[in-house]
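Here is an idea for our session: we take a single protein and study its fold together. Which protein we use is up to you, so please pick one and set it down. Once you have written the record down, we can walk along the chain together:
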Amino acid sequence: MSIHTEAQAASPAARTFSLQISDDQRQMLEPVRRYARERLQPLLNEAATEARRQDARQTAAHLGLASAMMSERQGGLGIQPFELCLLLEDLASGPLGLAAELTVSLPALAVSREHEWLCRLLPQDAEALLAGRQALPLAVAAPPGQPTFALLPRHAAGLLLLAPDGGERWRLRWLDAAALHDLLAPASDKPSSEGLRLVRLPPAGEIHGTGFSATLPAGACQSILAWQGIWLGGLLAGAARAATAFAFSYAQTRVAFQRPIIQHQAVALKLADMAIATDALRLQVWDVATRLAQPARLPWGHFAAMARQVLNASLEIHRHAVQVCGGHGYVEGFPPARRFQEAQVLGLMLQELAQTSAYEEAVHAASTSDATAKAGL
């Protein structure tokens, strides 16, 4: 894969960058791709047993993803956001819900690079976070008046919550398993895919941490939002790529009116739209990933726009995949229908990030305007 983007003269902030995969990156990706091919993709079969899924969870602990996410100071590799996108895309080629379950702790590990107090929450063997045990999910509080959701695995050690703390300040709170259990109403969650459940949290003002917390400036919380967005966006990009590949394969083998349906113009056009939308979706996620790796501040509005566009494109791609597969696409357990359902859950989380980013952009603009007005007096 080699994609080069030239800076536009009309945009002084733009710069030339390359998304070419290096030999070291390719070597890092190969075990993950092999794991996805041998352990995850076979689970798309409706007959896959829970024992096989559990085996996939246990095998994930040997991939070294936790070490890859941790900083070099912590004894890890400190991979870049773009490299994380590539890893997530490969993992999402199997069941999307299982990929989300296995990687739900990665944003928290990324945040621990800059906030060392989080290292005290990590188990002695950090790879256990990816084996379905002692997971550290991260949630971001929605703007005032909006519901806040979180994705919790079956064995969560607790929850990291990023919530406003007045003005442009944010607070990162830790809720251990006991506090999280007391906080949630019995009917506040509903089963999601694989081992994840979608939970609705109380308003941020009613949530209190349990020992560990930190107040953050706007710039620091922005990187946390971006890591969470890259996690969700990378999974959705990988699922969209897998859905497009499945639709192409299905259209080549499904015969209607004595010829494969891919030879029908309407189907061919829909597949072409899916391929173009998938490439655009991936580039949008990669753009935010490369900006996060740069010292310049990522604009709130840019991140919010990316989140909304990725959400809309993802759902449209999965909708097309279901339509290409015709009646089979609606069969429960068939890959297109299952991915569509799981993508909607992750899309809900991404939409929440977009709303939070747009809200913070408005708060920042109002604060800047007030400061300018006072300076002019």
